[in-house]
Design a protein that fits this description.
Helix Hairpins, globular, alpha+beta, 4-stranded antiparallel beta sheet, single chain, 235 residues, D-amino Acid Aminotransferase, Chain A, domain 1
């Protein structure tokens, strides 16, 4: 097989794994059996071992290449990453509505339709993609400066290392890293089986390690792509 043919085949296999990951981890609709998936990953690893110069950033082998880190670099947010506020009565809710009208330069009697949903209390995260590639993952920090936990975020299989479709040169997608109850129960069960101490709170695990095998990033794709347009820097 010629070098060009090897590169083409390698990239086709990487693209195939990306598609399988999307269907399995995001759409909950597996396309292939685990054994077939593993065979392709093994082939990719073999090709990269024989030809390290062909490795691409979106390869499945690049997800955990650096391992989980406990120390992180501090990086300033492109735009402040603000936290949510609370309201406890109707007067405070009316005041919130008034502020929104003012910021949108709308008349006082204007009606706004709000979309409400439960808040997942996890770890706020801002993912930065440049030319479609995931290059940075910042925690909220103090809102101005966060910690870059890129290597840890790469272990979350639902997060694409490379974007699909149309996207701007630079885009930040903001969401919440959280651990579902079922995942927390499985983790503590594994801790007990190993004779180790169990965890009292899933939030503490996320805060300390940023990610774990059962932690997910919730991205409401259509909404976040629309809502994060002001976060994009078109250099």
């Amino acid at each position: 097989m010629t070098t060009a043919a090897i590169i083409e085949h390698y990239r086709e296999q990487v693209a195939r794994i990306r598609e399988y990951d999307h269907h399995y981890y995001v759409l909950d609709n597996p396309l292939v059996a685990d054994a077939d998936y593993d065979d392709i990953v093994r082939e990719i690893k073999a090709l990269e071992t024989q030809h390290p110069e062909i490795i691409v950033p979106e390869s499945p082998t690049q997800r955990v290449g650096g391992g989980l880190l406990a120390q992180f670099d501090s990086v300033a947010h492109a735009l402040p990453m603000l936290s949510l506020d609370n309201v406890f009565n109707e007067a405070e809710l009316s005041d919130f509505n008034r502020r929104i009208l003012e910021r949108l330069h709308l008349p006082e009697n204007s009606e706004i339709t709000y979309a409400c949903e439960p808040k997942l209390d996890g770890l706020a995260m801002s993912l930065r993609y440049e030319n479609g590639l995931l290059v940075q993952a910042l925690t909220r920090g103090d809102g101005q400066v966060g910690e870059n936990v890129l290597n840890n975020i790469k272990t979350i299989r639902a997060i694409p290392l490379k974007l699909h479709g149309d996207f701007p040169p630079v885009i930040e997608v903001r969401g919440e890293v959280f651990m579902p109850k079922a995942g927390f129960a499985r983790l503590n069960k594994a801790q007990i089986a190993k004779g180790e101490k169990t965890f009292a709170n899933p939030w503490l695990i996320i805060r300390r390690y940023c990610v774990y095998a059962t932690v997910y990033l919730m991205i409401l794709t259509e909404w976040f792509i629309r809502l994060t347009q002001p976060l994009c820097n078109y250099n």
